[in-house]
Structures
1.
Amino acid sequence: MIRYRLQCAHAHEFEAWFASSASYDAQAAGGHITCPECNSREVGKSIMAPNVALRARGEVAIPDDEAPARYRNLVREVRRVLVSGSEDVGARFPEEARKIHYREVEQRAIRGTASPDEARALVEEGVEIMALPRLPEDAN
Ligand SMILES: [Zn+2]
């Protein structure tokens, strides 16, 4: 058995199994393969897959000279989402995080500060916390 990724004239892609490549050739030549979406008989082996894969790779590849700027923007965006959706409890963070973890208070997203030791203790207790991504400029 051999599996081909096929595409009809309307760009519908689907996969089909054939006994052999010769079997595929014979069925394709006889017009016996139809698109499951539109019943088109104009079906051929998909040539889209490798192109799509190449394009997708191209889109995620960031040129080196732009990477730092894009990374900063991404970090900024992640921070913005995390910060806007959470309550600032400041230095009470470890205490509040525990209360939430042990369901002593209403479940909510919080942010605040914790020393490395406090953060480690929370993690060891199984309290789910994450460090906000920091940018070099934030340290000022
Ligand atoms: Zn189709």
2.
Amino acid sequence: MDYAFTEEELNIRDTIRQFARKEIVPLIGQIEREKKIPDNLIRKINGMKITGLPFPEEWGGSGASFVSFLLAIEELSYTYITFIYSSIVSFMAAYGFLNYGSKYLKEKYLRGLLTASLKGAWAFTEPDTGSDPMQLKVRAVKDGEDWVLNGTKRFITNSGLADIVVIFALTEKGVTAFVVETQNPGYIAGKRGDFLAFCGMDNGDIILEDVRVEAKNILGEEGQGFDILLSVEVFAKVASCAGNVGLAQAALDQAVRYAKEKTHRGVPIGVKFQMTQWNLATMAAKVAASRAFLYSIGAKIDKGEKVPAESSLLKIFTAAAAREVASDALQVHGVYGLSKEYPIERIYRESKFNEVILGSNEIQRVIAANALMRG
Ligand SMILES: Cc1cc2nc3c(=O)[nH]c(=O)nc-3n(C[C@H](O)[C@H](O)[C@H](O)COP(=O)(O)OP(=O)(O)OC[C@H]3O[C@@H](n4cnc5c(N)ncnc54)[C@H](O)[C@@H]3O)c2cc1C
């Protein structure tokens, strides 16, 4: 299929592809074992300035298309999906500043995020909820000219690495987005997440103990936080779907490789067994459909169209497709698919994540169905 990518988009894709295969591939085994990304690699990834790709040059971005950002995420994910969420949450913070930040907030933080001299995080989820704003327990109380935040956020990507975090807290007027510097007294990076996959990722609790925030560090208006969250998440969701496409393509390629290598009485299983062929063809169809859906939404975003419901449909479809393709690809490998010697074992574990995070796919169905009922 011809996606009519521009030369600039193809150059960005190729640059990230070469970088990922040269710098990341040799370290995946070590990261998976040690559950830590080497500092040197973090510096190199920051140097690729992926977060800044679709932002205006005026603020330190590259002025590239949103599709370029999707291509970069797809390539990273194809190699090692663990890395995409750090870029995506920094993107969320930056996108929040660009669209809702005052001149003061933009000047203080946006350029730093886009040039990778600052790392961002985006903290909504708490121990009791990741979906429902009414159940938030982190509270912000006015004290003189400042606000004082208390409570715990959970499962926050970059919580131990970030310089600034957008924290969603309840005030009398509702959910409010506060920009918190992680060096503020009372900001504590707590217990680290330990998941089925995404081993090297920095993710964990944020404990807020009387963290003092100036009123000018409110993003948007008091009470506007949930609207900001939903509008920024649309773009993050689409970016995460580029992760689904990259992961599904990686699973398919592993299956095809194995189906060529593994023989049965001297004939490759991908040639001999129709069941294997059926699996490969079904996987390829899901990857192709996911990619076409992804870049059609990316093109709409670049034209300035709004895609709140489509982004949910995209996440429902591509996350399930990635999980199904990874499962079928493991099946093609037989028992070797269960062995850590083959990449498909890791890819299979990774493939479940995007049905749960960035708003579970049940919530995406609610968003999409409500839009249908309104329409
Ligand atoms: C690797 C990783 C990285 C993450 N990074 C971040 C981050 O940077 N920032 C952040 O804020 N969070 C982050 N999260 C948290 C993640 O986004 C949330 O876990 C996710 O949004 C789902 O929230 P929950 O698990 O708390 O589900 P809950 O809201 O507690 O829901 C529990 C279950 O009930 C269902 N449910 C809830 N409400 C409804 C409803 N109205 N209708 C139908 N079903 C419903 C859900 O679908 C789910 O199955 C991360 C999680 C992981 C694993």
3.
Amino acid sequence: MKNIKFAPLLFIAFLIGGALPTLGGKVPAGSSSHGYRLVPFHLLDHRLEFVPYKNAQRERTLLGMFRSAGCAGQNLTTELVSKNRPPQVLCRLQGQTNSLIIVGGHLDHVRRGSGIVDDWSGASMLPSLYQALRSQPRRHTFLFIGFTEEERGRVGSRYFVTHLTPARLRRVRAMVNLECLGMYPPEVWEDHANPVLLRNLSATARYLGTYVPGADCDRIGYDDAMSFRRFHVPTITIHSITQPTVRVLHTRRDNLSAIHLSYYNRAYWIVAAYLATLDAQLPVTPRQP
Ligand SMILES: [Zn+2]
């Protein structure tokens, strides 16, 4: 992710609007059945900091984290995408319907740096999001996916989406992509986001008393959300890339010192509430072809 141009930052609005995170809450829909329960931030941060260097170890580590979060048995699977490469990791939270909300981050990283920002920050957050949502019955089925080989041209996400049956593809109501979190307070890639998903993000942030600024990565190469948009799946990418922080990516500076845990925790706090909002607000019927 390089050479971005981002919309004017409303950091002051963020500072004014910022509210202190709490360990759980309700979403704008208001019903307690749509609530969620955050994991303690020290657990979230531990998962982030426990970052193996090799891509294959990341796959095994994410599997272990999902297991410890309670995702196991037939709900926890791997998908081999190409020979001699680590598989991608999928954790399913079964809802009341088979309508799907997909939440993704990618497991692989380039050689330079530790790839903790790009994108262990997204992948290692998935088990904690799973835990936050499993506290209540869900209308949608959630699929948390640590994609493989994003850096080699979105190989894993393209494989996943092209292997869905047409009927299952129409069941996907949203794909929420988590990319490069924690360098800055969470932002949204606005000009690529589906308008309904964007409105729900704004509503969630307002409800929490905060704000998620738009920061468009116009000249960015690609991200896993693009694989889904090609098939008309509504997507949204949440990240922390700004003109200064983009220089960290794909360099030796992509290491733990690039991450501010308070920003990272804030991203988790907002995304957990956001996913609960989407579950409450999005239809559970198949999308029109
Ligand atoms: Zn990435």
